[in-house]
Every structure is written in C-alpha cells, then in structure tokens.
# Entry
Amino acid sequence: MNTILLFLVAVPAIEIYVMIKIGQNIGALTTVSLIFATAFIGIYLAKIEGLNTLRSGIYNLYKNKIPLFELISGASIALAAMLLITPGFITDTIGFILLFPPTRKIIINFFLKKNIPIKTSKDDFIEGEILEKNKDKDNEV
# Structure
C-alpha cells in the first residue's frame, strides 16, 4: 500500500520537474506542443500495433495455438497507450519502449521466463480404463 502511494506521488512530481527543466531549455510553448505531439503520435502507433496484435492472435487461433504472447502484448500496448496519454516525458519514453515490437518482445520474454514455471515432466495424461456394466440389464428396463 505504501509503495503504491509513493509511486502515485513520486511519478507526477518527477514528471513536473522534468517538464520544468525541459521548458527552461526549449521554451514553454514548445514543451506543451511536444507533449501533445507525443500523445497523438503514440495513440496512433498504439492503434496500429493493437490491430497487428489482434490480427496475429486471430491467426494463432486459426492455427489452433494459444495466443498467450498476443494477449500479453495487447495488455502491454494498452499500458503503453495509457502512459502516452499521461502528460510527461518519462511516461512517454516508457510508453514508446512498450509500443515498439522488438523491445516489447524482449520485455515480455524476460517476465515470462522469470515468473512462469516451466513444466519439465511429461505427465500430460492420466492412464485409466473404462469399465462398462452389463448392457443387457440396461436394455431390459
């Protein structure tokens, strides 16, 4: 709980500090224009990447494969879009990193390998046998 509260206070404070420093160097109007430009460009790229991910997921479903990477990729694209809408240069940088496919693939593979246990046993089936009762007794009634 304390970590989330610290995060919610620290990120906007750092963003404001960075915007003020950049505004001192390039001007206030240019800084505001740059923030709006990154938001519009980011949302447009998020739309394109989202459609590509959806297309890839449908293709995997057509091939009877589980679209796990596409689901996680779609969630990361949604997170990137949210970060790009949020005004600030640090959140925009993180959003663009999540938006581009090569970096998104590296990040997703890092978290998948780290957090999902991999099965090493080959016990994917359970052996058993079917026992049938007398069919004649069932047909007499």
User: Anything to note?
Assistant: Residues 13-115 form one domain. The longest helix spans residues 28-62.
